[in-house]
Write a structure and sequence with these properties.
The chain is of the alpha/beta class. It contains 18 helices and 12 strands. The longest helix has 23 residues. It binds S-adenosylmethionine (SAM). This is O-methyltransferase C-terminal domain-containing protein.
Length: 397
């Protein structure tokens, strides 16, 4: 098969772009406010350069088999091995075999995949070949990241793998309320209903959701500080807030904020995680029914709208908009990805397709505007930080 390599002059141009981005990065390092943007730009240019150096045919196989990495991560979790690498410890194949009683050949093959994926680095220690975690492998020391891999691998990826077949059967029509979601096509019921009858999986999903939250898009302390909150006020209702991890963290980072923090979710979620974080109250609530907390200062939805179709989102908003109309001081914050109109990142594209099994999607700013307009809302401001999600502050139009 003939190979179309990138020409040396194109590569030289890409090197210039990397150097330019590297120079801006150096300048930004002195003024940390811009560092995040500069890092992303440098990463983007460096990736373009790396891609241009690849042998194009040679990438076809690794791309197809990306799922091998999630499978290998899962196997290391099942063998309860991640903790053995705490504190930068090197663990030899011999020790792993002793600990797990697995066949040595299985360990060699699984760790070969993870080393090639830059999660581990291999060296020769006193007991022969050994592994230690790299910076990309270290996140798995936290059980929430392992829960995320497990939830995606067993509960969502199968529906994504079925996409070509199911989409062909459905003649490439987007899922609707009537047809149900791809998860339902595969499992006979909707994801959230299914989780209700599988509490162990719900626990995993809830933990997995906490695996990515720098929470720096919205300046909670500053903005809530402006509201002159009293202890008896409801400061925030986090609707479908899972185990309350977001509110727990905002509370912890801003102990000066007065008022109650309420997290609402389905009973099955609270059965999985019965104790709310300190300073947070749990309340059972279905997002498709009238909102019982009438006078909250902030109504907050994080990673919710991307789970649902436009029609479902409109029904969810119907429960809130009447309250916003009668209480001008109440804010509505939607935390989700705001896709660029073109050239989305890998992370954005992955998040969008990952919503497919649930019948949801990530949206661009223009798609958000259209969606909100259906409920008489507009965008007051899009707050952005270092996380992939933005915080969309809405207003009644
Ligand atoms: C993707 S998780 C997001 C959780 C949390 N907001 C976060 O950012 O981590 C979606 C949440 O929606 C909840 N959920 C799904 N359907 C719901 C419904 N009808 N009413 C209330 N919560 C629901 C799920 O239980 C789950 O906790």
């Amino acid at each position: 098969m003939s190979v179309a390599y990138t020409s040396p002059s194109e590569i030289a141009d890409l090197v210039k772009c990397v150097n330019k981005a590297a120079a801006s990065f150096e300048t930004a390092a002195a003024a940390p406010g811009d560092l995040h943007v500069a890092r992303r730009r440098l990463q983007h240019e460096a990736r373009k350069l790396l891609n241009s150096l690849e042998e194009p045919n040679g990438e076809v196989w690794p791309r197809t088999f990306q799922v091998n990495v999630s499978a290998a991560v899962e196997i290391v979790s099942q063998l309860k091995l991640w903790e053995k690498f705490e504190g930068g410890k090197e663990v030899s194949i011999a020790e792993i075999v002793e600990l797990t009683e697995a066949d040595e050949i299985i360990i060699i093959r699984i760790f070969r995949q993870l080393t090639a994926s830059n999660l581990f680095v291999e060296s020769i220690g006193p007991r022969g070949p050994s592994f230690a975690l790299t910076s990309l492998g270290k996140p798995y020391l936290h059980s929430d990241h392992r829960a995320f891999n497990n939830f995606m691998f067993f509960d969502l990826i199968p529906s994504i793998m079925a996409m070509p077949k199911t989409l062909a059967e459905k003649r490439y029509k987007a899922p609707t309320k009537e047809t149900g979601t791809p998860f339902k096509w595969a499992h006979g019921e909707e994801l959230w209903t299914w989780l209700g009858s599988h509490p162990d999986r719900a626990l995993n999903m809830v933990a997995g959701m906490t695996s990515h939250n720098p929470l720096d898009a919205y300046p909670w302390g500053v903005e809530l500080g402006k509201l002159d909150l009293k202890d008896e006020d409801v400061a925030i209702v986090d609707i479908a807030g899972g185990q309350g991890h977001i509110m727990g963290e905002i509370r912890q980072r801003n102990p000066q904020i007065k008022g109650r923090f309420i997290v609402q979710d389905l009973p099955s979620t609270f059965e999985a995680v019965p104790t709310p974080p300190t300073g947070v109250d749990f309340m059972t609530y279905d997002i498709f029914t009238p909102q019982p907390v009438k006078d909250a200062c902030v109504y907050h939805y994080r990673h919710i709208f991307h789970n649902w179709s436009d029609d479902d989102c409109t029904t969810i908003l119907e429960q809130i908009v009447p309250l916003l109309k009668t209480q001008p001081r109440s804010k509505l914050l939607l935390v989700d990805v705001v896709l660029p109109d073109s050239n989305g990142t890998m992370q954005e594209a992955i998040m969008d397709i990952s919503m497919f099994p649930m019948g949801g999607m990530e949206r661009s700013e223009s798609q958000w505007k259209l969606l909100l307009a259906r409920s008489g809302l507009g965008i007051r401001k899009i707050w952005r930080g270092s996380e992939p999600e933005a915080c969309i502050e809405c207003q009644v139009e």
